[in-house]
Design a protein that fits this description.
Blueprint: H1 3-55, H2 59-64, E1 66-73, E2 80-81, H3 83-95, E3 98-111, E4 114-125, E5 133-145, E6 151-160
Parallel strand pairs: 1-6
Antiparallel strand pairs: 1-2, 3-4, 4-5, 5-6
């Protein structure tokens, strides 16, 4: 076999190998997208459950959505770690007049048993004896996959997008 034939054979072999790798990567990417889409749907459902529990003032239901090692980083407050402290934070918010919460999931990415959610919120606040106000802001939640396959809030941070008054 001449050197041209060997080179042609090598070129064909290389092309086949590249095509096989591209096909494998494409199917892996498609499987990854399906997995991410499934996780996003689960996180979106959890965000709806979170808003519903908050809006009806069901503090134990909110607390149950957090991982046992969960942490909430709320503005103008120290970090709240653990379900008992997180429930106290949300109970205090309700007492201060936080009435209605609407969450919008903007993106979800998955990384090694965690999901990172970025979103926006609208919060209606009416402290006792005061006029109703609306806050709009953004949040980031890191969800942790539980041994039973469910997702729990592991890290939760939010802040307003409204200018100071």
């Amino acid at each position: 076999m001449g050197s041209h034939s060997r080179l042609r054979g090598l070129a064909i072999w290389s092309s086949l190998l590249l095509c096989a790798c591209a096909t494998q990567q494409s199917s892996t990417s498609a499987a990854s997208r399906r997995g991410t889409d499934r996780v996003r749907a689960e996180i979106e459902q959890a965000a709806v459950r979170f808003s519903e529990a908050f809006n009806r003032g069901d503090i134990p239901a909110l607390g149950a959505m957090y991982d046992a090692d969960g942490v909430v980083l709320a503005p103008n407050a120290p970090p709240m770690q653990g379900r008992q402290n997180i429930e106290a934070l949300w109970a205090g918010a309700r007492q201060q007049g936080f009435r209605r919460l609407d969450l919008v999931v903007n993106s979800v990415e998955t990384i090694d048993g965690h999901a990172i959610e970025l979103g926006s919120y609208t919060l209606v606040i009416q402290p006792p004896g005061q006029a109703e106000t609306t806050d709009r802001g953004k949040y980031m939640v890191i969800w942790r996959r539980q041994p039973d396959g469910s997702w729990k809030l592991y890290r939760d941070m939010f802040n307003t997008s409204m200018p100071p008054r």
